[in-house]
Design brief:
Layout: H1 15-21, H2 24-35, E1 51-54, E2 57-61, H3 74-87, H4 102-115, E3 119-123, H5 126-137, E4 143-147, H6 152-161, E5 164-168, H7 173-182, E6 187-192, H8 204-214, E7 217-221, H9 236-239, E8 248-252, E9 262-266, H10 268-277, H11 279-282, H12 289-304, H13 307-325, E10 337-343, H14 345-357, E11 360-361, E12 363-365, E13 375-380, H15 387-403
Parallel strand pairs: 2-11, 4-5, 4-6, 6-7, 7-8
Antiparallel strand pairs: 1-2, 3-9, 8-9, 10-13, 12-13
Helix pairs in contact: 3-12, 4-12, 5-6, 7-8, 13-15
Length: about 425
């Protein structure tokens, strides 16, 4: 007989548990649930496409990273199903021991060829790829020069390495140069090809020049650039002509490739060294066969039809023009992320809720992901969005800004 579920509320709680439950972020989440404004952990009940079933409703989805629509492509789904039938549901081990499938090596070979490099190394997640690279390259006496809007995976990797983190202004290579000239310790510089919150791109050519002058290794995270930037979809490294010059390129499979996983791409000798030194690679289970096969199929589709990238860019252009035509001012970018500044955190959450009430899903970005008072509505464009969907979301955003009396210039409330 199954015992009834019960918690441990009657027991004395250890101090670490008391601290866990007393964290202000936990209290904020509880409050958000009570007032019905928590925009996170939304229950998704269908495949993620332009129209997605969420919380019992069909929602117009402008909050997904399925940029090329390949997560729903029948060829990608078929590849995942076939791989599960052949290799099983999981590998039940790390790449180091029993989990190094021929399928993993096939994907690594395809990735290195796609980028025209000699080495690639596949991880279970994109987060793991950045965590592993930072923690393997850096030591206690090294410096990690990191853009102030860098993703948490890089920050956590630097912390794991116990290196000294140095922050420079967003997309400001001159700030990096000034700081690195004063502190000549060995280290690296990490930037994102396309930044995940604002959607803007790093000036990679200038960052490369600064890194060469200061003898820093250059790491470019192309999580949001793969499949969205460049003629072939390699990312900003392609657009700025530094594919062969960046010391390492990191990617994720969970966006344009519609799967789950990540990779580090670079020179073969360096990749082979990482393969035996990187703890987040050595001591975790390898990717499931289905996720590897799906990523490989999506990559091949992208290689065979780079026109998918151009189609996505056209849809992005259409959304930006529609927002501007309605008096809104999206932040400058030409990537798949179109962000509009709202202002205060509460106003940002209210704006999200009003869009949700109209059957539209977007991503609210609040502090600490952005500076306090600079909250964003983040719209993610998919190639598979239709033109009418673009007009619908632009109309809705304009109405929400009007209803909440927000400045269309992205400066918070309109002055009374």
């Amino acid at each position: 007989m199954t015992r009834p579920e019960q918690d441990t509320a009657g027991r004395p709680r250890a101090p670490v548990i008391q601290r866990l439950l007393g964290d202000p972020r936990v209290a904020q989440a509880r409050l958000g649930k009570r007032i019905g404004r928590l925009p996170y952990f939304t229950r998704v009940e269908s495949a993620t496409g332009p129209i997605t079933r969420m919380e019992g409703r069909d929602i117009l989805n402008f909050g997904s990273n399925n940029y090329l629509g390949l997560a729903n492509d029948p060829r990608v789904i078929a590849a995942a199903q076939e791989a599960s039938g052949r290799w099983g549901a999981g590998v039940t081990g790390s790449r180091l021991l029993n989990g190094n499938l021929a399928l993993h090596e096939e994907l690594e070979d395809a990735l290195r060829r796609f980028y025209g490099r000699t080495g690639a190394m596949v991880f279970s997640t994109g987060y793991g790829a950045n965590l592993g690279l930072m923690s393997s390259l850096l030591g206690r006496n090294d410096r990690a020069w990191v853009d102030e809007e860098m993703h948490a995976s890089v920050l956590d990797g630097v912390w794991l390495a116990r290196a000294t983190m140095k922050r420079f202004g967003h997309n400001d290579p001159e700030h990096l140069l000034a700081q690195a000239k004063e502190d000549t310790a060995s280290g690296l510089c990490v930037v994102e090809g396309v930044y995940s919150m604002r959607g803007d791109r790093a000036p990679l050519r200038r960052f490369l020049e600064v890194c060469r002058e200061t003898r820093l290794a250059l790491v470019v995270d192309e999580a949001h650039g793969l499949g969205t930037v460049g003629t072939r979809g390699l990312g900003t490294v392609e657009e700025d002509g530094v594919v062969q010059d960046a010391d390492f390129i990191t990617i994720t499979f969970s966006k344009s490739l519609g799967s789950c996983g990540g990779a580090i791409i670079g020179d073969k000798e360096q990749i082979e060294a990482l393969r035996v030194l990187t703890r987040p690679f050595l001591f975790t289970a390898a990717n499931t066969p289905a996720s590897v096969a799906a990523a490989l199929a999506a990559l091949r589709i992208l290689q065979e039809d780079p026109g998918l990238v151009a189609q996505l860019k056209e849809r992005v252009r259409s959304l930006r023009e529609a927002l501007v035509a309605r008096g809104l001012r999206p932040l400058p970018s030409d990537g798949p992320i179109v962000s509009v500044e709202v202002g205060a955190d509460f106003d940002t959450l209210q704006a999200w809720r009003l869009l949700w009430n109209r059957g539209i899903y977007a991503n609210p970005v609040i502090h600490p992901a952005v500076p306090a008072g600079r909250g964003l509505l983040r719209l993610s464009v998919m190639r598979t969005h239709e033109e009418q969907m673009v007009r619908t979301v632009a109309d809705a955003c304009a109405d929400v800004f009007s209803d909440l009396q927000l400045s269309h210039e992205g400066r918070g409330k309109v002055a009374s």
